[in-house]
Amino acid sequence: MNFISNIWNHPRTSAAGVLIAVVTIAGVLSQQGISLGKAGSGTVISLVTAIATAMLGLLARDPEQGSGLRSQGSGSTQKLAAWMLISLLLLSTMTGCSAASVAQDIVNWTPALESAVATVDSTGALLAPADAPVFTAATQGFDAAANLLNTQAKAYLANPSASVLAQLQTQVVTFQQQVNSSLLAVTRIMDPASQKHALSAVQAVATIVNAMLALVESVSSKAAVAHMAQAAQVKIAAVEPLLDREAAAAVVAAHYGEPTSVARGQVWQTERVEIQAGF
User: Fold this and answer.
1) 164 near 99, Cβ under 8 Å?
2) Are 193 and 89 part of one and the same domain?
3) 38 DSSP assignment
4) First and final CA of the chain: distance in angstroms?
5) Which residues pair with 52 in a beta bridge?
6) pLDDT one-digit tens code per residue, 113-155
């Protein structure tokens, strides 16, 4: 009966184990082509996997409560975070991502990217007169970068070759760096209302570009990802305090037609994995 007492005494650890098992089993089923039916625009298996990883992410972030467990909270949380990463690695290894499906997903993000950049273009008119030039200078080149990324994403969909992927890798990192630099630059806007508008507009672009970056990473070799990360001088950690994860989750949820709670976990996961990769 030791396993029952272990469950009772260590509920968070037991829950984490169950969630990792769910992710692992779902990965095996997906690899075998078993979907258990459709769920929105995806499958039941993908939905269950996303929910399990999101819940594991919440466990990893939520410290132990109670005086008796307080001293163990930090270590337990670190272990749960490690298990979270392990589950993601298991999922990516077992389910895999075909170049064609990733290319299609990247292309599917392009209308949202175009809309977000259009919002950036119109945001200057909402700012105080003294702040508009700062914002314009910070976001200059977004249109050209978005157009080039869109073109290369479509080229990759049509021909998912190594040479086209290399161009896509370069452009998505270039744009991501441009957006990160822009986030830091708009903090120089002093008017609170203007800064809020500016950060909101740039963050919407950042959410989509980071999603596209994660997709490109998923079909890139370890060496290629390391090379991409080496080119990223403005790290995500530097702009993380400026990001609104609830707004990011809303963008992701709308794109994939999924609950915001699931999207929230995906946003957190994407940030952690990209930071771990060196971005």
Assistant:
1) no
2) no
3) E
4) 46
5) none
6) 999 999 999 999 999 999 999 999 999 999 999 999 999 999 9
**Residues 84, 169 share a domain:** no
DSSP E strands: which ranges in the chain?
Answer: 38-39, 42-43
Q: What does the pLDDT look like over 31-70, one tens digit per residue?
A: 445 556 555 545 566 666 666 666 655 555 544 444 444 4
The range of the structural domain enclosing residue 109 comes to: 99-277
- 115 in the same domain as 61: no
Q: Are residues 51 and 23 in the same domain?
A: yes
Q: Which of 98, 63, 68, 90 is nearest to 78 (CA)?
A: 63
Q: 3-state DSSP: the chain helix, strand, coil percent, rounded to 5?
A: 80, 0, 20
Sign of the CA dihedral 87, 236, 64, 74? positive
Phi, psi angle pair for 50, to nearest 5°: -60, -40
Q: Spell out a b/e string for 37-46, using b for 16 or more CB atoms within 10 Å of the CB, else e.
A: eebeeebbbb
Pair 169, 48 in one domain: no
Q: What is the pTM of this model?
A: 0.67
Structure tokens at 88: 């993601």
Q: Residues near 276 by Cβ (< 8 Å), separated by ≥ 6?
A: 85
Hey, which residues does 39 pair with through a beta bridge? 42
Q: Look at residues 38, 61, 95 and tell me which one is the last residue of a structural domain.
A: 95
What tens digit of pLDDT does each residue of 67-120 get? 444 444 445 544 444 445 444 444 444 444 566 777 888 899 999 999 999 999
Last residue within a domain, chosen from 49, 80, 95: 95
Q: How many domains does the chain have?
A: 2
Tokens of 259: 């609950």
